[in-house]
Specification:
SS18-like protein 2, elongated, 80 residues, 2 helices, SS18_N, mainly alpha
């Protein structure tokens, strides 16, 4: 199961660490490699299963990125 999968009731309690993000990126890399391999072998059912997991991981990463402040968005005392 994906490291990004967290049940709804626990989502607000999960702390996102750099290690978690790195593991997720590594998992996505492996998923992409598996998808390409299965596509080359004509095994569509396996592709779809891995594509769903990859999609879920990417949505999770996008949600984290959206919730994180961008580096230039914080106002300083000089800019106010």
């Amino acid at each position: 199961m994906s490291v990004a999968f967290v049940p709804e009731k626990l989502r607000s309690k999960v702390e996102v660490t750099p290690e978690t993000l790195q593991r997720l990126l590594e998992e996505n890399d492996q998923l992409i490699r598996c998808i390409v391999e299965y596509q080359n072998k004509g095994r569509a059912a396996e592709c779809v299963q891995h594509q769903h997991t990859l999609h879920r991981n990417l949505i999770y990463l996008a949600t984290i990125a959206e919730a994180s402040p961008s580096p230039g968005s914080e106002k300083t005392a000089d800019s106010v």
